[in-house]
């Protein structure tokens, strides 16, 4: 195994904003909604297109804290 070091004055990045109670509640709501949506998709109750459409709406409604890290939605 090869170990590499980072040269210079590297510092870990910090989030641009701190998580507030409301942001954490919205994030929790988003993940609960997505779990339910995933269950519906896995049970063939909704199509992939419907899953993606509702996921986009969930991201707008709940505004997850680190939404920019979530995978992109096609379609």
UniProtKB/TrEMBL annotation:
Residues 24-70 form the SHOCT-like domain. InterPro entries: SHOCT_2. This is SHOCT-like domain-containing protein.
